[in-house]
Amino acid sequence: MKTKRKVDRRVARTRQMLKDALISLISEKEFAAISITDIINRSDLNRSTFYAHFCDKEELLACIINELIEGMMKSMQESPSITDPCQNGYARPTHATIQLFTYVAEHAHYYKTMLNNQRVPQLAQRLSDTLYKFYLKEIENHPDREDPLNLNKGFFACYLTSAVIGFIYHWVVITDLKYSPEFIAKELTKIFTMKPYIPYLQPSTSC
Predict the structure, then answer these.
(1) Between helices 2-26 and 36-43, what is the axis angle to 10°?
(2) C-beta separation of 110 from 64 below 8 A
(3) What distance in Å separates the CA atoms of residue 38 and residue 184, rounded to the nearest whole number?
(4) pTM attached to this predicted model
(5) Which parts of the chain have pLDDT scores under 50?
(6) How far is the first Cα of the chain from the last one, in angstroms, to the nearest whole number?
(7) Up-side HSE of residue 28: CA atoms within 13 Å toward CB?
(8) Residue 85, SS3?
(9) Domains of the chain with bracketed CATH
């Protein structure tokens, strides 16, 4: 049993080295320009080791994206709805919302590299598709909740998705993780609950 655990740790470590190497290279040049030789040189591993784990660089990239998406969604086990008011009039962000941003912070280098340019558009698209399906399901699973605006479920899910991805991008790429996950979760909660005044979005009072 100890030998198996040792082998498992060695496999995980090797795969992590290959993933780190690819992310490092993506920060420097286009994915299309990256070769297997680049990856093994950067990871200080040999070619046979690479092919023992991945058939090509596309499979390696897919593995990274899948793990980021799966880890992010796993962190959101609670319902993301924000319905817990505090005395100051704001709502507390749910544990799921905080956990979401905590996960992103723990993998910030990966998110920053892959969202900071157009070299790997697959991550942004997969994030959008996955979050949209998640939020749409949450909305459809709670038809009993009051909805005085009678919002279109698809557009509402799209709004939630865009807000979360926008927050992740601004926090990780623009501010370089200047704020804590708890702060980001609170700021997102304010938008969902306080409805900031934006003049050009206000309905016209004229007939």
Answers:
(1) 120
(2) yes
(3) 36
(4) 0.81
(5) 79-83, 87, 207
(6) 77
(7) 12
(8) strand
(9) 1-54 (1.10.10.60), 64-195 (1.10.357.10)
